[in-house]
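1st attempt posting a full record on here, be nice pls
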Amino acid sequence: MKILVTVKRVPDPESNLKIDASGTGFATDNIKWVVNPFDEIAIEEALRIKEKNAGSEVVLVSIGPKTAQEQLRTGLAMGADRAILVVSDENLEPLAVARVVQKLAETEKPELILMGKQAVDYDNNCAGQMLAELLGWPQATYASAVEISGTNATVTREVDGGLEKLSFALPAVVTTDLRLNEPRYASLPGIMKARKKELKEIPVADVGVDVKPKARIVKLETPPKRAAGRKVGSVEELVKVLHDEAKVI
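the predicted structure (as tokens):
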């Protein structure tokens, strides 16, 4: 089976991001870029499915600047077979991302599309759902387990009441949660092989979809600094402080 996996280039979550001079974006100088952690889990799951289903192919797809090649090479080093980079210097909105991946899916014709449930930079958590709607495919979000049996999939997802199992026919879109797996490290041979694997570049203008933004960021602000905490000597004092000062009880 063919599995398409989306890979987004995001700032390292450990980075100390700052608002840029325009006040509408982040300063990106001298920060480290990594594979979106949820997408890394999606890559790992695709590789595990491939290992259980001989003859399968894992194709990575990223939308971003040319430098996103680095994150795709990371996925190729983990074991993916080839990659497609849709080159765009703009950060596309979720609907535009869904439309671009829809076009690629119509060409590649995968049986399964795996996506991180959200990217850790903007946390929108909706591109996967939009993609499934555009394709008219079944979808399962927040997957904590994925089982493939022939032309069907069963996904376990965590919900407020416990665990929910969804079964549906392929092709389908599945978005991955943290508990799904532990991504593997790329081996040295894997890193060497990744240099020779196919990485195709497509200008976003050649995909043939409308990617113009529908929303505009007016201003970004850092949250106000929190006041320092203080220790109290007893439960009675705590209750008094919460009642008289914080006024929360």
